[in-house]
Amino acid sequence: MIAGSTDAKIMVRRCLVTFKPFRIFVVGIGFFSLCFLMTSLGGQFSAKRLGDSPFTIRTEVLGGVESRGVLRKISDMLEVILKRMDSLSKLDNTSTTDARRLDELSSAINRFQPASLVERIQAIAQNVSNMAIRVEQILQNSMVQGRVLRDGSSSQCEVPRDPRFPECPGKVDWMRARWTSDPCYAFYGVDGSDCSFLIYLSEVEWFCPPLAWRNHSSPPTQHTQPAKSPKRQAAFRTDLSVLLDQVGTGKESLSFMKRRIRRLAQQWATAANRLDAKLEQQWRDQKKILVHVGFLTEESGDVFSPKVLKGGPLGEMVQWADILTALHVLGHNLKISMSVKELQGFLGVPPGRGSCPLTGPLPFDLIYTDYHGLQQIKQHMGLSLKKHKCHIRVIDTFGTEPAYNHEEYATLHGYRTNWGYWNLNARQYMTMFPHTPDNSFMGFVSEELNETEKRSIQQNKVNNMAVVYGKEASMWKLQQGKESFLQILHKYMEVHGTVYYETQRPPEVPAFVKNHGLLPQHELQQLLRKAKLFIGFGFPYEGPAPLEAIANGCIFLQPKFNPPHSSLNHEFFRGKPTSREVFSQHPYAEQYIGRPHVMTVDYNNSVEFDSAIKEIMRTKVEPYLPYEYTCEGMLERVHAYIQHQDFCAPEPPFIPANLSRKGSAGGSRMMGPLFVPLPNTTALGWASNVTAPSAWPPLSSLRLLVSQEGQSCVDACQSAGFICEPAHFRFINNKEALRRLDVQCEVVDSEINHILPAFSVVRQECGLQREPLLFSCAGHSPKYRRLCPCRDFRHGQVALCRDCL
């Protein structure tokens, strides 16, 4: 052991012991800086001598910004010196010269004797940098000259030049320069020597070949195939008390979510029993699931929680509460994270800044998060994210289209935004409404009424009562024609609002509006049960409130957008990873529910608006809730996703020539068409006599269509009464599909473009997709007609095909 190193360490650690009880008071000055000053001024300050003045020095003499900056730099340098001394203290063969140099270092601090305190600070600052360099030189020399690692000598640690590991030399060079940049490297045993670099790069990462002299009983981390634990069957749960405890406390957002879970508890229990009976005891794998709600973490800023009781948006919290409940009720093993610290603990990531991979298998089958959480996961999983991202599901309200998701393509073709670009399978993004078929539709639930409640609502409706959709006063600003249509509404109906205010009535709300203030959920529900009309001002977009109003017997009136709103012309959508055009405030309500429950009109046309109000007053409707927004509908959908969606299993290339006819002897090669005409439609379907590859949704649901020029597959499928199914693209991305659709191709190219597969009628050019991540229902081009893989769907459940359960 080295005496000089020990003495120097003792000196620095003495500072630690002396001032540890008072560290909370040392606000603007580095703690090691304070220790350094103490020693240089005589080394006599003690924790027992409160009359002495290290803290007085801090407040009276060192209060300037410049002094604090100098001391912060000194502190950083001393931290480095201490780390180096820790390393040196472990060496057994340091030369006499090195020991003598360390003796000089251990006494160097006491040699500072300038006349005044400011001069002393300056002298310290001038010398600490030199000291740090000298310690680094001694450490490096000691290791080069004589250190022998636990498992080998320096001769065994020459950097290999192996063509199978071409990146190894470069990675070793990087480690030499930057191994101290993240504490995780030291956590894995890296200590600055080439041997430790090679051990790390071959056993924790995968850039270098395994070292012959190492014990290789366990393969490198990244290639380890964990032993699969035995499958457990998931059982439906109706008791939500465990879930409520897991959600936690301390934020109004969490309190809101827990109130919602409690209020809907009986409906979830009833839905679980119904779905259990429908599945007829079907085996369901129990999954280990992590839910990390990134937007509610302090690290993301959490702007939502403080606004819960002030009229802020609640849609995201509604959806997350329902996701948590659905996963719990379906019987899965659930962990919930609301902070980065909890996330780190659940993932088991090494300490540091995320530069190192996980040492073992991912402890979860699935991770549900949002874009904020995804960024946090990336920061802490580091290199492991690439391997494990197939397990991630991103809750994404407005959707992410494939052109924005593919990082390189988005960057080269102008689709790069602050979101997107994660190179996920687009179905890993899960939306609030089924507006982006490239993504999966997660949804949420609305409260379902029984027959008695429905009759009561119809009997007690007030025919001339309207409630305005808008809890924030800013939504009521009389611009863009609001004043004129509000006056028309007031002519026929009593107008009610639920606008948040603290002491005074918001001036934006007209005097004729009866404002109830922000209402608790059950009181808002009672108001909606009396009202005939729920009217939107055009914002917020695609929220849960219109569905709740329709479920309580209201007619929803909303504005038509002309031109449609999108990321190209509207600030709200700008930067979102989608080119989707929104033709009304709530496209789902317009498209999937429609009249008489939903009316979409031009608010700038006073005649049309006036006529709509009169029609609403004479129209009688029953409370209506689409099945997919009931508790049972959501459970059914989430169950199907969990049991059938697998983005980790590699998809084998689809080669039509390798298929066989059903019932053929010895599985003879397919003869005849792969796609055949279907009755009562222009679409083609999968030939019933051809063995279909394993797929979900199953190929029995496939409906192959051709779009018009400039038309997306979303619109082409929708106009034929189907849904675009991105999972089926790989089965139609071939010449066989082109032939069966009678497409004339002089040239068939394979390219990377989000509108492919497609063809040009004029040029008789056909293109197939080369990049599976760019299979896109949303893509369209005025010059091309697209091959579109549509599918059928279950009544009231557009996310699932008829055979999907």
Automatic annotation (TrEMBL):
One of its GO terms (molecular function) is alpha-1,6-mannosylglycoprotein 6-beta-N-acetylglucosaminyltransferase activity. It comes from Astatotilapia calliptera (Eastern happy). Its main location: Golgi. It comes from the Eukaryota. This is alpha-1,6-mannosyl-glycoprotein 6-beta-N-acetylglucosaminyltransferase. Keywords: Glycoprotein, Glycosyltransferase, Golgi apparatus, Membrane, Signal-anchor, Transferase, Transmembrane, Transmembrane helix. It is a single-pass type II membrane protein. InterPro entries: GT18_cat, MGAT5_Glycosyltransferase. Pfam families: Glyco_transf_18. Pathway: Protein modification; protein glycosylation. It is found in: Golgi apparatus membrane. One of its GO terms (biological process) is protein N-linked glycosylation. PANTHER family: ALPHA-1,6-MANNOSYLGLYCOPROTEIN 6-BETA-N-ACETYLGLUCOSAMINYLTRANSFERASE B (PTHR15075:SF6), ALPHA-MANNOSIDE BETA-1,6-N-ACETYLGLUCOSAMINYLTRANSFERASE (PTHR15075). The chain crosses the membrane at residues 21-41. GO terms for cellular component: Golgi membrane. It catalyses: N(4)-{beta-D-GlcNAc-(1->2)-[beta-D-GlcNAc-(1->4)]-alpha-D-Man-(1->3)-[beta-D-GlcNAc-(1->2)-alpha-D-Man-(1->6)]-beta-D-Man-(1->4)-beta-D-GlcNAc-(1->4)-beta-D-GlcNAc}-L-asparaginyl-[protein] + UDP-N-acetyl-alpha-D-glucosamine = N(4)-{beta-D-GlcNAc-(1->2)-[beta-D-GlcNAc-(1->4)]-alpha-D-Man-(1->3)-[beta-D-GlcNAc-(1->2)-[beta-D-GlcNAc-(1->6)]-alpha-D-Man-(1->6)]-beta-D-Man-(1->4)-beta-D-GlcNAc-(1->4)-beta-D-GlcNAc}-L-asparaginyl-[protein] + UDP + H(+). Belongs to the glycosyltransferase 18 family. Its EC number is 2.4.1.155. Residues 184-790 form the Glycosyltransferase family 18 catalytic domain.
